[in-house]
């Protein structure tokens, strides 16, 4: 039977498109051979984002065709914006990645970051979420929500740059929860903040439960009773070793009287379910973006990676590239009222 010339032409076109796509993917795979991927961690060494960045640098190359090398470049400052900006402006070649905290996008929403369009980033997936808690030195007497609101002596809370969750979370405590806090800013990440709490330079931190367990200083302080977990702020499930303790804590949402403040916190805390995303530069060639997204997904399913991360205290609530992008960028669909309230709470 003869094939109609038009049908034959369509078949040839389909075959040609498939051939071109295969060649492009093969070319992208060849590209990574002998190359080095740089993962920028926009926070200080020793913190949980630094440790996760190094885990990914160890495991991701195994899932990238061509088996490239991977290194971590710590570029702390401005709550993570300096490091993120360096990747945002890097060459779109698939060799520059960023691991940062997703609630940073809110600073773009509220006008705090004007030179980064988060919608243009190449989202690769999220390795986990965070359950935020309020940890207080035991030499402070406050334990209840009422105590935090009525204490005569302000609780000194460590803070970083304005785009950091380590600053944004205590601002919510202070402004939406009416806690009597004094933010002590300037710490370049969680590690120096934890050391400051150990040295009694600050009384408290608002951070992820996994950070308490992964960081050596706070893990030891929690174990010996120097610090206490006193409030659950919500987000992803807490690390298994803290699950029962966190379940018994008062909940921050119960401290928020204003309905608009409560709605703003609920919207903001939703980002904590994808608080550990990875992204690449805007304008990445589609075939290289596809390789990185698949590599990230395969890595997150790798039993050895999952065991290593869990053993280090991380909670892996993984999301693929599309899921992470949809969740994180959903904040740009918030109502004008909620956006306005977020501006007020985080200014």
**Reported CATH architecture of the largest domain:** 3-Layer(aba) Sandwich
Mean pLDDT comes to 90
CATH topology grouping of the largest domain: D-Maltodextrin-Binding Protein, domain 2
**CATH homologous superfamily caption of the largest domain:** Bordetella uptake gene, domain 1
Ranges where pLDDT stays below 50 over 5 or more residues in a row are 17-25
Oligomer: single chain
In short:
This protein has helices at 5-32, 48-59, 81-88, 105-109, 145-150, 165-175, 190-198, 209-214, 216-224, 243-247, 259-269, 286-301, 303-311, 321-329, 336-346; strands at residues 36-41, 69-74, 96-99, 122-126, 131-137, 155-158, 181-184, 204-208, 227-235, 277-280. With 347 residues, it is an alpha/beta fold. Mean pLDDT is 90; it is low at 17-25.
Can you give a write-up of this model?
The chain is an alpha/beta fold. It folds into two domains: 179 residues, D-Maltodextrin-Binding Protein, domain 2, CATH 3.40.190; 141 residues, D-Maltodextrin-Binding Protein, domain 2 (3-Layer(aba) Sandwich). Helices cover 45% and strands 16% of the residues. It has 15 helices and ten strands. Strands 2-1-3-10-4 form a five-stranded mixed β-sheet, with helices on both faces. It has a three-stranded antiparallel β-sheet with strand order 8-5-9. α2 links the parallel β1 and β2. α11 crosses α15. The chain is globular and about 65 Å long. About 3% of the residues have low confidence.
């Amino acid at each position: 039977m003869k094939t109609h010339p038009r049908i034959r032409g369509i078949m040839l076109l389909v075959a040609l498109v498939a051939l071109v796509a295969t060649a492009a993917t093969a070319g992208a795979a060849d590209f990574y051979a002998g190359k080095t991927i740089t993962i920028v961690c926009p926070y200080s060494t020793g913190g949980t984002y630094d440790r996760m960045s190094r885990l990914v640098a160890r495991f991701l190359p195994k899932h990238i065709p061509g088996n490239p090398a991977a290194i971590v470049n710590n570029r702390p400052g401005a709550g993570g914006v300096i490091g993120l900006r360096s990747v945002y402006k890097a060459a779109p070649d698939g060799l520059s990645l960023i691991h940062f905290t997703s609630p940073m996008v809110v600073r773009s929403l509220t006008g705090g970051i004007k030179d980064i369009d988060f919608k243009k980033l190449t989202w690769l997936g999220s390795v986990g979420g965070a359950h935020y808690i309020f940890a207080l030195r035991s030499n402070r007497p406050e334990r209840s929500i009422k105590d935090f609101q009525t204490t005569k002596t302000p609780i000194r809370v460590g803070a970083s740059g304005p785009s950091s969750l380590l600053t944004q979370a205590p601002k919510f405590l202070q402004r939406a929860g009416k806690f009597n806090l004094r933010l002590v800013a300037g710490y370049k990440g969680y590690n120096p903040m934890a050391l400051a709490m150990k040295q009694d330079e600050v009384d408290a931190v608002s951070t992820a439960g996994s950070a308490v367990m992964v960081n050596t200083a706070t893990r030891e302080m929690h174990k010996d009773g120097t610090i206490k977990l006193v409030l659950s702020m919500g987000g992803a499930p807490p690390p298994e070793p803290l699950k029962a303790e966190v379940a018994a804590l008062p909940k921050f949402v119960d401290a928020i009287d204003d309905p608009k403040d409560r709605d703003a916190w609920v919207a903001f805390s939703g980002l904590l379910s994808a608080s550990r995303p990875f992204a690449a530069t805007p304008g990445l060639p589609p075939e290289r973006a596809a390789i990185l997204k698949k590599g990230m997904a395969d890595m997150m399913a790798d039993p050895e990676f999952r065991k290593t991360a869990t053993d280090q205290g991380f909670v892996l609530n993984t999301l693929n590239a599309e899921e992470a992008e949809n969740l994180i960028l959903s904040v740009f669909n918030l109502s004008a009222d909620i956006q306005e309230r977020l501006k007020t709470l985080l200014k």
